[in-house]
């Protein structure tokens, strides 16, 4: 029995395909995935670690309520302990604050790292401190300090979990990726983990390795003995961006999937990284294809062409990047469902159908301001193709 407070719809669909159950009651689960941010701010989804106004005592109270529940479950279950994974999203300043706050953070950390020697960083830091509204700066600093103090409290309680993963953020500009309060926080969290001797439970991971679905994939591969899997990825542009390539390689490495050439692979990840595609480049292989569409939601060409393409029968999973979704998340959604297809030895038709409706047709209808029923022809084509290839 599984419990998750994140990506529930995917989990429910995936577990049903595997003949496993998802529960809404924490105490009933044998395997638990918790996103700390969603837990803390569950009553107000608009809040997160980058914009809340909670005191440290408020955050600790909410977390302690979880710990009390887990302690009661442990007391009742005895030796049959739950397997628990806690995920914590660290706040990236560049994407959650304005430019002045980002550079204030950058020069502040750069000066501190120089141990008082970088006078230029000190000058730039003070210029920004004079420029930024005092109350806004104080609020920003207080929130960062509260978050970090809270994360330290979480690390202290690490024995209630099997894994605690702090998800790092992508550094958008390499030249600016060395300094900033978010970088300083990562260093401090790493230091705290070592101080509390919790390295066997706590870790700082890239965000692509902090998804509940990737842990589910790992478990599926172990239970179904999917060993020595070989994978190949390709993009329609043939020039997939470097960050996405790194994410795929990291995911492959974590799942012990060997990256090979097209002729040797067990499956193919096909990434569409082009908007308004006019034709789908052919793939000379009959292997299962896990499709990931990273094009804009307003760009319907690839998904529709894929439906009409003769190679659609090779599509074993499908995901289109959702609004504000990270690319690696869309990749993991497609890869994890594709692995279920390989584990079960059958095409995961329900996932393809659901994701076409949720990721493709529904956002398209909203962007074009048309009712979903106006897409009756392509939806009928989807149903027909899935029935033909069942």
The main sheet orders its strands as: 1-2-3-4-5
Helix/strand structural class: alpha/beta
End-to-end gap: 28 Å
Biggest sheet architecture: 5 strands, parallel
Give the percentage of residues in beta strands.
5-15%
**Mean pLDDT, rounded to whole units?**
92
The helix-strand sequence is EHEHHEHHHHEHEHEHEEEHEHHH
State Rg. Answer: 23 Å
Helical proportion, percent range: 40-55%
Number of helices: 14
SS elements, strand count: 10
Overall 3D geometry?
Answer: globular
Weakly predicted, low-confidence segments: none
Describe, in short, the structure shown.
The protein is built from 14 helices and ten strands.
Present the secondary structure layout.
Elements: E1 2-4, H1 8-18, E2 31-35, H2 36-40, H3 56-77, E3 83-89, H4 93-96, H5 99-113, H6 119-131, H7 134-156, E4 163-168, H8 181-195, E5 202-206, H9 212-223, E6 230-235, H10 242-254, E7 258-259, E8 267-272, E9 289-293, H11 301-308, E10 315-320, H12 327-344, H13 349-367, H14 376-388
Parallel strand pairs: 1-2, 2-3, 3-4, 4-5, 6-7, 6-8, 8-9, 9-10
Give a description of the structure:
It is a single chain. This protein is an alpha/beta fold and about 400 residues long. It contains 14 helices and 10 strands. It has a 5-stranded parallel beta sheet, sandwiched between helices. Helix 1 packs parallel to helix 12, helix 5 packs antiparallel against helix 6 and helix 5 packs across helix 8. It is globular and about 65 Å long. The two termini are about 30 Å apart. The model has no long low-confidence stretch (mean pLDDT about 90).
């Amino acid at each position: 029995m599984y419990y998750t407070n994140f990506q529930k719809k995917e989990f429910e669909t995936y577990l049903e395909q595997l003949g496993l159950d998802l529960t809404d009651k924490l105490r009933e689960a044998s395997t638990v995935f918790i996103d700390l941010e969603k837990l803390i701010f569950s009553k107000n989804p608009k809040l997160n670690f980058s914009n809340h106004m909670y005191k440290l005592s408020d955050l600790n109270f909410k977390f302690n309520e979880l710990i009390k529940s887990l302690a009661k479950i442990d007391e009742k279950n005895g030796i049959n302990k739950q397997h628990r994974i806690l995920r914590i999203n660290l706040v990236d300043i560049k994407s959650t604050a304005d430019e002045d706050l980002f550079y204030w953070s950058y020069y502040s950390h750069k000066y501190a790292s120089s141990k008082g020697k970088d006078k230029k960083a000190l000058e730039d830091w003070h210029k920004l401190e004079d420029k930024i509204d005092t109350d806004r700066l104080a609020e920003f600093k207080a929130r960062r300090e509260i978050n970090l103090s809270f994360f330290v409290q979480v690390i202290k309680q690490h024995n209630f979990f099997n894994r605690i993963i702090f998800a790092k953020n992508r550094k958008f500009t390499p030249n600016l990726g060395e300094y900033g309060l978010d970088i300083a926080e990562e260093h401090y969290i790493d230091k705290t983990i070592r101080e509390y001797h919790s390295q066997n439970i706590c870790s700082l991971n890239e965000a692509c390795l902090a998804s509940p679905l990737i842990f589910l994939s790992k478990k599926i591969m172990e239970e179904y003995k999917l060993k020595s899997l070989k994978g190949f990825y390709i993009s329609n542009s043939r020039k997939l961006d470097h960050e996405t390539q790194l994410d795929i390689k990291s995911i492959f490495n974590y799942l012990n999937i060997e990256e090979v050439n097209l002729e040797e692979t067990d499956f193919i990840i096909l990434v569409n990284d082009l908007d308004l595609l006019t034709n789908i480049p052919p793939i000379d292989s009959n292997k299962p294809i896990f499709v990931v569409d990273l094009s804009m939601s307003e760009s319907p060409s690839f998904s529709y062409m894929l439906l009409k393409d003769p190679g659609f029968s090779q599509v074993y999973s499908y995901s289109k990047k959702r609004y504000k979704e990270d690319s690696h998340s869309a990749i993991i959604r497609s890869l994890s469902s594709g692995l279920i297809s390989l584990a079960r030895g059958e095409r995961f038709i329900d996932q393809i159908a659901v994701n076409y409706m949720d990721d493709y047709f529904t956002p398209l209808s909203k962007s074009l301001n048309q009712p979903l029923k106006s897409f009756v022809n392509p939806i009928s084509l989807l149903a027909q193709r899935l029935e033909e290839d069942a």
